[in-house]
């Protein structure tokens, strides 16, 4: 199976809903498996101690999850135009994977949610791309010929799926479609890259 890791932090549930729809896109591709993982909250004073398995939702991510995935979708709510501290804290601990080159050449994409239309979705998506580029990952976008990208009036950008949660927490059909497209693209890209590596 080709394993796509969907790694996210979600405070109020909107980013988690995006992750679930990306997973559906991944698993629409035969031979692909979506693995949902999250990260614990980081305290303002010190790292908050947390059990290895949260009370509900996705399991906490480990470096092993990143090392063994074939592709990655990275998601965070928008916090002042940037990714959430909890996700950044986890990524800051991936230096050993950078030294080993564990993520080099794997496809990756990003997604976000914000509380308002102009909450900084695109800058948040760009902020999440930076560590992926440092790891040598192949960052994928949403294709310009995707109709939902042109028709959306709330969430969705060329940089990745997004959701505007100012009115309610429900994803629009366009937002769901863009999540599906990203998941499908990541799965197909990861499978093609695996075939190429195996042929060498």
Q: What is the strand content?
A: 15-25%
**Main CATH class:** Alpha Beta
Oligomer: single chain
Mean pLDDT: 92
Helix percentage range? 40-55%
N- to C-terminal separation? 19 Å
How many distinct helices?
7
**What is the total domain count?**
1
Shape: globular
Low-confidence stretches: none
Assigned CATH superfamily: Flavodoxin domain
- Major sheet, described briefly? 7 strands, parallel
Classification by helices and strands: alpha/beta
Based on the structure given, which CATH architecture is correct? 3-Layer(aba) Sandwich
CATH fold-type name: Rossmann fold
Radius of gyration: 16 Å
Number of strands: 7
Could you characterize the architecture of this molecule?
There is one protein chain. The protein has 200 residues and is an alpha/beta fold. It has one domain: Flavodoxin domain (Rossmann fold). Helix content is 40%, strand content 18%. The protein contains 7 helices and 7 strands; from the N terminus they run βαββαβααβαβαβα. Strands 1, 2, 3, 4, 5, 6 and 7 form a 7-stranded parallel β-sheet that branches. β1, α1 and β2 form a beta-alpha-beta unit. α1 crosses α7. The longest helix has 27 residues. The radius of gyration is 16 Å and the shape is globular. The protein starts with a strand and ends with a helix.
